[in-house]
Amino acid sequence: MNINHLYIHVPFCKSKCSYCAFYSIIDSSLQNKWCSAIINQFNYFSTLYEITKLKTLYIGGGSPSALDPEILISILCYFNDFCASDTEFTIELNPADLSDELVHLLKDSSINRVSIGIESFNDTVRNAVKRRGTSSEILKAIKMLKHQTSFAIACDLMYGLPLQTKDIVQDDIKKLIEYHPDHISYYELTVEDTSALARELNHKTVSLPAYDVNESSWEIILTSLFDAGYERYEVSNWAYQKNYCYHNINYWEMGSWLGLGPSAVSNIDGFGSYTRITTVSNIYAYLSNILDLSTDYIAGKTAVIEYCMMHLRKKNGFSTRDFYQRFSTQFHHIPEWLCNQFPLYLMNENNRITVHDTGLDHLNYIIVKLMNYLE
Ligand code: SF4
After folding, report:
1. Protein residue with least CA distance to atom 4, ligand 1
2. Measuring CA to CA, which residue among 310, 340, 259 is closest to residue 322?
3. Helix axes 334-341, 300-311, angle to 10 degrees
4. Distance 62 CA to ligand 1 centre (A)
5. Phi, psi (5° rounding) for residue 270?
6. Distance from the alpha carbon of residue 203 to the mean position of ligand 1, in angstroms
7. Which of 17, 80, 184, 363 is the most interior residue, by most CB within 10 Å?
8. What is the DSSP letter of 228?
9. Long-range CB contacts (< 8 A, 24+ apart) of 82-85?
10. Strand (E) or helix (H) holding 42
11. Residue whose CA is at the smallest distance from ligand 1 atom 2
12. pLDDT score for 111
């Protein structure tokens, strides 16, 4: 099988944000060993799958920009051989790490897209969740990237953070739109049980905005991005002039991809079933055995539910032909059933099940109903 989407997980951060549940450590002394292990894991996968030119390559984390420059160069040089001129090659950046040296280093590589983790421009909110960097560092970073590079610029923000009022969200979005990034992801805070924030909330040392504040914030985000010419093409993602994130589109379409590094997940599309391979979420275990992997096989109605859940995150949903080709006849009525059950949210447009704007905000409801139906 030929696989042409690759994710590299950098498990290092300089500090921990309180809401974060991603796997990362602060200790940077293992970066060298991690770099060798990533390449070894890639070579192992290359013996199982044909990996020639990549359509997308995404370095995320963690904080890729927290890597020692020498290590980052090693990774960029190694994977450069698998990139073509049209490979979408993204790296996540913490704006606090951006320097002239880092910009030059990135410009000398095949990277053509940067994803800037902003979360909020407001320093009080940032401090409340222990997010490294300041508002002025973010603005400086965006200006540097805009003026010194031709990278596509993606910005990630959040709402529903502690102390984040509706006015602060309004101000965040105003600043964001001034710089007109090519792509915007806007996520509502999810409190993960294992996060420091969950413990702080239990101890009542912080509190979250009220439900109606989040509702108003979401309205502001939707209206402002629409007015600024952004296309909402996925539940939480907007593109300007069709600058979509093809790496994530492959993820939402449940295509095949490989994930390297501790906690990274790979998906092998078996056309009607999926094999999900998860690398151990512990760097010490990973370094002692890069093949410390767990594998899940997803088939039958579970595969149908996942297929619908992921594809319907996108406004352009899925093609009924693709659905019929993948799944057995016992499920062939599902696309029609979905449209009949949720006429306000979904429609059949030229043999595609597509999602109305309002449907994007009711995906959980649709999927719960589908799960109950297939019980
Ligand atoms: S949110 Fe990102 S920068 Fe913050 S701790 Fe998690 S991985 Fe690190």
Report:
1. 17
2. 310
3. 50
4. 5
5. -100, 15
6. 22
7. 184
8. T
9. 82/6, 82/51, 82/52, 82/53, 82/54, 82/57, 83/53, 83/54, 83/57, 83/110, 84/53, 84/54
10. helix 31-48
11. 62
12. 98
Dump pLDDT digits (tens) for 79-119: 999 999 999 999 999 999 999 999 999 999 999 999 999 99
Are 93 and 114 in contact by the 8 Å Cβ rule? The answer is: yes
Q: Which domains does the chain have, with CATH numbers?
A: 5-250 (3.80.30.20), 301-375 (1.10.10)
22 pocket-lining for ligand 1 (C-beta < 6 Å): yes
Judge whether 359 and 344 are in contact, CB under 8 Å: yes
**Which protein residue's CA is at the shortest distance from atom 5 of ligand 1?**
16
Q: Is the CB of 248 under 6 A from ligand 1?
A: no
Predicted TM-score (pTM) of the model is 0.97
What is the sign, positive or negative, of the torsion defined by CA atoms of 129, 134, 135, 138? negative
Q: Are 73 and 105 in contact (CB under 8 A)?
A: yes
Is the Cβ–Cβ distance between 17 and 129 less than 8 Å? yes
